[in-house]
Design a protein that fits this description.
24% of the residues lie in helices and 20% in strands. α1 runs parallel beside α7. The radius of gyration is 19 Å and the shape is globular. The relative contact order is 0.24. The protein is built from 8 helices and 15 strands.
Length: 299
Amino acid sequence: MSDLTAPAFRELHKQLRAANAWADPERGALAALTRARVAAAAALVRSGRTVALGAPVETAAGPDNPDPAEHRMTALPTGVGLSFARDRFAMNVHGDVDSHLDALCHVSYDGTLYGGVPATAVTAAGATALTVDVLGGALAGRGVLLDIPRLRGTPWLEPGSCVSADDLRAAESAQRVRVTEGDLLLVRTGHRRRREALGCSPARAGLHPRALEFAAERRVAVLGSDGNSDAAPSPAAGVAYPVHVLAVQAMGLHLLDYLALEELARVCAQEDRWAFLCVVAPLRLPGATGSPVNPVALF
């Protein structure tokens, strides 16, 4: 049962849009990711350890992956003289399995994109505003992992569970880290670990819509998760993906969906630090509403 009524959701949407009025009209909350903050994040690299945050691309169909990525060989080596192996790759960028970034043109609500841009800016030929191009093919800053299953003493959150703003603050305290302005906030729910152990579920753990108040308060630049940040079933009446609406459309937050955070959580625990340099390199796809990504955490 939804615990956020339709009027309450609209009021929260209005509140968060106003709270992020400082954000850039094209780059959104990336405005908080200044050069000085990127340089400070680079100083976090001390041990030289690297962790890939992108999951292996899945080419097999499944209940949560009905439109899997396609990989096929287009040429094979001949074995005579010089020859080349060649292949082709195609992908549903916004699926429910593969790691990807959501651009600010990805979510329309009441006919508008982020910043009041008309939804008609997205055409059959591609988007004409707020596309993945605004990242310039590169994004780097201070990443912070908040591990909610670790906080609760469990390997994963059960499907349908919601992470509150209080959970995020409690994880900060337990991990002795603080999310600050311009950070790339990554929230582990254990979604991938549970999927690997028990298979996929139509329900999914994620953030409660009101947890976005934490993101607005701290002025984070990017939000990511090992799910898609939204809980299913939705806790907001009449809105299937409330976190997507609030983060992308109201606040101008680029989302990183379906990341692989298990190894990152292990390394953070081993290093005893939960902040790191995080580098994201989306494909430079003109007019695209998102991109597959393999972010890298550096310690």
